[in-house]
């Protein structure tokens, strides 16, 4: 049996596979049940992890774990649009900083050039 660190509480424990310790599994089971019940009663609401966590009074991180374990499927408002939007913005910022870098480099070298010419004249 391998020793693994629990994904939830960071405790070291012996596990044949799962990366969640038995204590956390039990807690997650309870949270999972509560989440399922809430979703069943509110099946028209498109909740994301944070909203569901607030609704059932649990930690969003625990629901995140359940989602990443494939036990829960939640509506994710951050999916797709925002992510690619962020990437585009990052790219734009990167491009901007590149252009800025080029500009200042140009400025530096041309002023150096001027200085050199000035020196040669003297
Ligand atoms: Zn644990």
What is bound: which ligands? zinc ion
Helical stretch count? Answer: 4
Radius of gyration computed on alpha carbons: 27 Å
Tell me the total number of β-strands. Answer: 2
Give the overall form: elongated
Strand order of the largest sheet: 1-2
Q: Which structural class matches the secondary elements?
A: mainly alpha
Summed over residues and divided by their number, the pLDDT gives a mean of: 81
Largest sheet: 2 strands, antiparallel
Summarize the model shown.
This protein is mostly helical and 122 residues long. It is 64% helix and 7% strand. The chain has helices spanning 22-41, 49-56, 60-68, 81-121; strands spanning 2-5, 12-15.
Secondary structure layout:
Blueprint: E1 2-5, E2 12-15, H1 22-41, H2 49-56, H3 60-68, H4 81-121
Antiparallel strand pairs: 1-2
Helix pairs in contact: 1-2, 2-3
Bound molecules: zinc ion (ZN).
